[in-house]
Amino acid sequence: MANQPDTATVVAARAGDPVAVDRLVAGYLPLVYTIVGRALEGHADVDDVVQETMIRVLRNLGELREPEAFRSWLVAITVRQVRDRFRLRNAAPDTPLDPDLRDPGADFTDLAITRLELSGQRRETAEATRWLDEENRELLSLWWLEASGELTRDEIVAGTGLNRQHAAVRIQRMKAQLETARAVVRALHRHPICPELAVVIEPWDHRPNALWRKRIARHTRECRLCAPAWQDLVAAERLLAGMALLVPSSAVTAGLASSSGAVSYTTSKAVAGKLVAKAGFGVAQKVLVTAVAVTVVGGGTAAAAYALGADDQAAPPAPQVAAAPAPSPSALTLPPSPAATSKSPAPRRTSSAPQPVVPAKETSAKKGVGVWKFTGSKAALKDVGAGWYYDWASQNNDIPGPAGVEFVPMIWGKQNVTSATLAEAKSEGDVLLGFNEPDMGGQANMSVEDALAAWPQLQATGMRLVSPAVAYGGDTAGGWLDRFMTGAKSKGLRVDAIALHWYGSDFSAAAVNQFLGYVDAVHKRYGKPIWITEFGLMNFSGSPKYPSDAQKVTFIKGATAGLEKRSYVERYAWFGLPAVGDSVDFGLYKDGDSPTEAGKAYRSAG
C-alpha cells in the first residue's frame, strides 16, 4: 500500500497530468491484476478483464469526486468487471484447459507459487484456492489482500456492496471452505496416496470442483490415514504476509538485450496497448505503449516502473521474481548444521566406461561450493576449480581443502554464537557468513530480534560480515531479510554483503533469468555485494523433483555466466559438491575424480 500512488497523484491524473496518469496505471495495475487473477483462477480471460477494468478507470477518472476514495472506487469497478465475466461464462461455459497442459504463466495459482516462492503451507493454501466456489474466489481475492495489508475492510465493503456484518459472515464462510480445500490438497499430495482415496477419486477428471471437494473432504474426515490432513493447519491470515501482489503473466513478457546479455522484462505492453487504443488516452502513450514495465519485487508491495522512450537504447532491467525456492538443506537428509554427524558416503557408483578427467581451467575467485564430508572432497574441490568453499561450520577440520582454495566460516545459528566458536571462525579467515536460513523452521529458525541481538558479537570479531542467508523472499518488502537490514541500520550494526539461497522448480531454460532476476532484485533493494551461498534446481513438493542432466547443464552454464558478469556478485556456491547417497541427483562429484554431468558443467564455469 505504501508504494501505491497517493491522493495527490490521483488529483493530478484526474486533471490530465500525463506523468500522474502513468504513475497511477503503473502503481495500481498489480492490485487489479491480483484481484482479477485470483477471482478468475485458471482462465485465459484474466488479461482481458484487467484491460477492461483499467479502461473504465481511465475513462471515468474525471467523474471521481473524492480522490481520497480512489482505491475503493477502483476495487468496486474491478469487482463489477469480475462479476460481469462470471455472468458471461455461466451463460456460455467454456471447457477449462487440462491442468497438465497449462503454462505456469497462464495459470494464476501456478504463477503465484512460482513468483512468490511459495512452499509448505503457503503453497498448499495457494493450491487450495482452485477448489473454492466461484463467489468465494471473488471474496478471497479481496480478503487475501486485506490479510496481506493491501486493502482495508472498508474497501472490501465498498467494493462488494455488502454491509460490514454481511461481509464478515461471508468471509468466515469462505475461510471455512478454504480450510476444507487445504485438507483436500494435503490428502491428494500424500505420498503414497491413501489406497481408499485412490479408489474414491478414480472417476475424477482431476479438475477441482465443488462436488469432488465435498467427496474428498468427507473421505478425509472418516479415514484414519487421511485425517491428519486437518491437523496443524496454520491460520491462513498468518500465511499471507508478503504474498499479495502479482504482475501480469509471462504471456506479456518481452526479451530485450542489454550490455550484460539477454534481459527479460516483465511488461504490460499488451495491456497498455489496448488501454490506450480503447480509452483514447494520448497522455500515457510513451510509457503505456512503449513499455510500462511493472514489477512487484518478490511478491511484496514494492512496484518499480521502467520505460523505454523512442530514443532510448536500453532501460534498466526489471528484475524477474525467482521461481519457487524451498527450504534447504532441511528437506534433505544432509547435515544441516555444524553439530550434525557427518554422513558416511554411499558406495561408489561406476559407469560402464571410465570418463577422462578434464583439467579445470583457471580458478574463478567467485565460484565456490557447499561441501559436507564425503570421500574425495579435497580432490573434488581442486578438480572443480573452486575458488572457495564452506561447510556450514566455523571451521573445516573434517573437510580440509586444497591449497589455494579459500575456506569461509559460518556462524550457523543462535546456539553457535559463543566466544569459542567466534574465535574459531576468526582464526579461519577474514570473512564470516551469518546465520543459515533463520527464516526456516528446521534451520537456524531465528526471529529478526534474536539475530539483531546476536549480531554485535559477530561484528566484534572485526571480520567482514555477510548477512544471514534467507531461504526465500530476500527482495520482499517487510520480509525477514528486509526487517533485519532495517533493524541493523537503525542500531548502527555493520552488514557488508548480502547472502542468498535460491532453488528453482521451473526446470526450463527460463530458470536462468528467474534466478538472475532474483539476484538483481535483491541487489537493487540493498545496494550491497551479493553472495549466493546455495543455489540449484529442485522441486520440493512436485514431480519430477530434480531436473534432467541436460537441464542441469543448461542452467549451470547460463547462471554461472550471468553471475560472473555481474560485478556486484562477489561469490556463488552450488549446493552441493557431493553426489553421493541422497544428493546423487543434484551434487557435482561422486568422488575425487568422478564428476557428474552437472559437475563437468560447473567445472567449466567461471
Automatic annotation (TrEMBL):
PANTHER family assigned: ALKALI-SENSITIVE LINKAGE PROTEIN 1 (PTHR34154)
Protein name: RNA polymerase sigma factor
Asl1-like glycosyl hydrolase catalytic domain segment(s): 382-602
Gene Ontology terms: biological process: DNA-templated transcription initiation; fungal-type cell wall polysaccharide metabolic process
One Gene Ontology term of the molecular function aspect: DNA binding
Annotated RNA polymerase sigma-70 region domain residues: 24-88
Residue numbers spanned by region Disordered: 317-362
Ranges of Low complexity composition bias in the record: 317-347
